[in-house]
Design a protein that fits this description.
The protein is an alpha+beta fold and 489 residues long. It has 3 domains: 161 residues, 2-Layer Sandwich (Beta-Lactamase), CATH 3.30.450.20; 86 residues, Helix Hairpins (Orthogonal Bundle), CATH 1.10.287.130; 173 residues, Histidine kinase-like ATPase, C-terminal domain (Heat Shock Protein 90, 2-Layer Sandwich). Helix content is 55%, strand content 16%. The chain has 11 helices and 12 strands. Strands 2-1-5-4-3 form a 5-stranded antiparallel beta sheet. Strands 7-9-10-12-11 form a 5-stranded mixed beta sheet. A two-stranded antiparallel sheet has the order 6-8. Strand 4 and strand 5 form a beta hairpin. This is histidine kinase. Its EC number is 2.7.13.3. It comes from Caproiciproducens faecalis. It catalyses: ATP + protein L-histidine = ADP + protein N-phospho-L-histidine.
């Protein structure tokens, strides 16, 4: 048993309390039983002494000598000589007769006799030990004449050894019952504690393996209780950690591939140009590729830096009044040539005018660029990408849709998570959508995705207008209600 284990703490706490309660109950019960037995004996002795009032009722007017004679007759005819001893005192306080027939031992303590002499009722009782060590209970009744003079006394003495034996037997029975209860508690608790400790040990061992990177290990659930729920939670945690680990590895692989491709192109053309003997056309082409791939590398690194800032909560915005229509048009124009080269149609329905918004010009352009770039990547040759912008109820609504491969339903809820890629065959780091979603949240807006596999994808961006922010600050719930009503419309 471990010194700091649950079983030890239970033994010290729960079992210790149970033991203390049982000991207290046994002591109380033994005291009550002893008092009950002793009170019964005292009641019996008192009843016997009360008989004297009737037996000696007519001796109140007679002499002490006549009382002594009558007392002798009472002792000789006493029916309970076997269970108690009687002593008769004369008017001088001397023992003149006993029921045992032996000479009285006047050296024995008799506090009850003294109490009876001092009492107005002529009654005294005492429980104690004789000089021999025998424990007894004694009751003395004093007789007086009509003038109040001391005539004599009769003393009843009962040995308490048998009573103490009975009390000891009852106490032993109580102790035995207490031990049986403790044994039952220990045995039942042993199985109960094992039913808790054994699964906990298995959970601990499994959690340790998960901490070491084994995300495939699972805990077998045996009971549908709190421990069973804990097993389910840890199994779910292992699933999530495994998925996160896979996404991380895929992310590293994707980023490595994203970095390797432009680096390979830059290195190849640099080596070609270093060899000399190249004509101007080749040099211009090589420099163009190097510049383009360097910009691509710079974009990847900047995206990673932005993602790092987002994760650490250090992403800041430079907010200003901007023309969202101009930024959207510039983003579309950036991809026009690429769309033509890839034989895809990039259509932009530019509205006449949109209200200004409060935002970071570079971050909003980054969102548009990421979404349009994704639409081009996931659209086959000959496909169409549509970009529209409208204003309604204080919000700018930008929709970028395509008729590409679409996103499978099981992947759709996760596409905005970090590192997640629904299609591993297409280049990309898997953080573009997560970054765009975070940027929109920082602008009090939102980014929503609707997609159907083999049909296409539509990304809707909501941005509150400057007037909306100034005149009617809204909670996220109000914004969501307005957007949902607009979508349903």
């Amino acid at each position: 048993m471990r010194t700091n284990g649950i079983t030890r703490r239970w033994l010290l706490n729960s079992l210790g309390v149970i033991l203390l309660i049982l000991i207290t109950l046994i002591l109380i019960l033994s005291y009550v039983v002893r008092g009950y037995v002793y009170n019964g004996i005292q009641t019996a002795l008192s009843s016997r002494s009360d008989e004297l009032t009737n037996v000696f009722a007519d001796y109140g007017r007679k002499s002490p000598k006549e009382f002594s004679t009558a007392a002798r007759n009472y002792v000789e005819n006493f029916p309970s000589k076997e269970s108690m001893e009687l002593m008769v005192f004369n008017s001088n306080g001397k023992i003149i007769i006993t029921s045992v027939g032996f000479a009285p031992d006047e050296s024995q303590p008799m506090p009850d006799y003294k109490l009876a002499l001092e009492s107005t009722e002529g009654y005294g009782t005492w429980t104690g030990s004789l000089t021999s060590g025998e424990k007894v209970m004694a009751v003395t009744r004093v007789m007086r004449n009509n003038e109040g003079g001391f005539v004599g006394a009769i003393r009843y003495v009962v040995s308490l050894e048998e009573a103490d034996k009975q009390v000891a037997i009852i106490l032993g029975s109580l102790i035995l019952a207490g031990l049986l209860i403790i044994l039952f508690v220990i045995v039942s608790s042993y199985y109960f504690m094992n039913s808790i400790i054994t699964p906990i040990k298995e959970i601990g061992a499994t959690a340790k393996r998960i901490a070491q990177g084994d995300f495939k290990v699972r805990i077998e659930k045996s009971n549908d209780d709190e421990i069973g729920q804990l097993c389910d939670t840890i199994n779910d945690m292992a699933d999530e950690l495994g998925a996160a680990e896979k996404m991380k590895n895929d992310f590293i692989s994707s980023v490595s591939h994203e970095l390797r491709t432009p680096l390979t192109a830059i290195k190849g053309w640099a080596e070609t140009m270093q060899g000399g003997g190249n004509d101007k056309e080749t040099l211009d082409r090589g420099m163009g590729i190097i510049i383009r791939e360097s910009e691509r590398l710079s974009g990847i690194v900047e995206e990673l830096l932005d993602f790092s800032r987002m994760q650490s909560g250090r992403m800041t915005l430079t907010m200003d009044k901007i023309d969202i229509l101009a930024e959207l048009g510039e983003a579309v124009y950036m991809f026009s040539e690429r769309a033509n080269m890839e034989h895809k149609f990039l259509l932009y329905e530019e509205p006449a005018m949109l209200s200004p918004v409060l935002g970071d010009i570079n971050r909003l352009r980054q969102v548009f660029v990421n979404i349009i770039d994704n639409a081009l990547k996931y659209t086959e040759e000959g496909g169409t990408i549509n970009v529209t912008a409208t204003e309604s109820d204080g919000f700018i609504r930008v929709v970028i849709s395509d008729n590409g491969c679409g996103i499978p339903a099981e992947h759709l809820p996760k596409v905005k998570k970090k590192f997640y890629k629904a299609n591993q065959t297409i280049r990309g780091s898997g953080i573009g959508l997560a970054l765009a979603d975070e940027i929109m949240k920082l602008h009090s807006g939102s980014l929503e995705i609707e997609s159907h596999e083999n049909v296409g994808t539509a990304v809707t961006i909501f941005i509150p207008t400057l007037r909306q922010l100034e005149t009617q600050p809204q909670t996220d719930e109000t914004m969501n209600e307005e957007r949902n009503s607009e979508n349903n419309g």
